[in-house]
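Pilot study result, target chain (221 residues):
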Amino acid sequence: MMLSSQKHIFWQAFIVTLIVFSLGIIVGVILENWRVSKIDYLYKQSEITLLDIRAQGDMASLMHLDCETAIQENLAFADRIFKEAEVLARYEAAERLTEELELEHKKYDILRAILWSNSIELRKRCKAGFHTIVYIYDYNEPSVDAKAKQGVFSRVLSDLKEEKGGEIVLIPMAGDNGLSSVGLMMNLHNISESELPVILIDEKIKLTDVTTVEEVSKLIK
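Predicted structure:
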């Protein structure tokens, strides 16, 4: 009788554990899907804004519109992308149960590559006074050392952006997502995946080691 009772208790505990585990998985997937849908919505808004900016640029070249408007729109878009990147990073910091967030990250990296190209064009065509700071990092399988360095880079550049505001266009992007647009920009500026993370200032100064805001700040004066 006692053995039968113990078996009954064991099976009850097993069933309860299984139910709790299954509910945890279901809740996790629901939460992940909610994060993905939110990021996808933000991405679509940014994509529309970018297309609008590119169309505006084409029209400006045809109708000789002023550069000031194009520069301000580009800076506003850059700030928006940067803030949305922070949201994406917070979601990615949570345990990933699907690959959807990785796909969203790739879509954003394509937008960032276009933003970088557009910023270079504006600086040449309109002699824009802002600086471009592109931070390219190892996203998929960073080593322990790379993770530590990227943590420092992210903190330093976030503080720099807060300090400089519209003086800089800060563009963080993954350099190992297999995207041809990103790869093309990296090749153009002699940046390889093996040396990531890298900070590129105004397409001229390449940094692979930095620890303070002052180190970067003195290079953009």
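One observation from the pilot: The chain has one domain: 11-217. A full batch analysis is planned for the follow-on phase.
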